[in-house]
Design brief:
By secondary structure, the protein is mostly helical. The chain is built from eight helices and no strands.
Amino acid sequence: MDAQELVMSHVAAAELVPADRDVRITAIVRAEHDFIWRLLRRLGVPEASVDDATQQVFCVAARRVDDINTGSERSFLFGAALRVASDRKRSREARDEIHDEPGDEVDPSPSPEEQAEAGQRRALLQEILLAMPMDLRTMIILFELEQMTKSEVGELLGIPAGTAVSRLRRAREEFKALAKRRFSQSATKAKP
């Protein structure tokens, strides 16, 4: 292509009427939309934002459609998608930094109140267990707290599985009765 043909091709491209530009960008979107959507998702754009990011890439293409060489549409869109994904990542990181200022963190450990309540529940459990006969207490500890099976408990205690089951039933009944008694005593003491 000589210089005159090159100048003429630029003039012809610059003289594209808006309808021709619309037809070209529509063709680009139809041909490359799914590719760009998947690319952005794989580049780390959150699924909730990938549609917006895809639209952003095609808005860039629409503004610069005259700069996109025929046959290089996918390459241009790929570069635009990389920039959009990178910009979105930087934007997310900046927002996260704003929220990560000292004092904004949530401590996942239990609060002092929660720790105190848990301690009270453990003390109450221990109190009820200690009030139970040893054979029934053992059944609650092994079945309920240690999560052992009937056969494991039977083997450990040297008793048949059927005996373990009936002893567990009695242990649960005793535990419920003691807990009910304990709570009724607490309610009576709490009344003014």
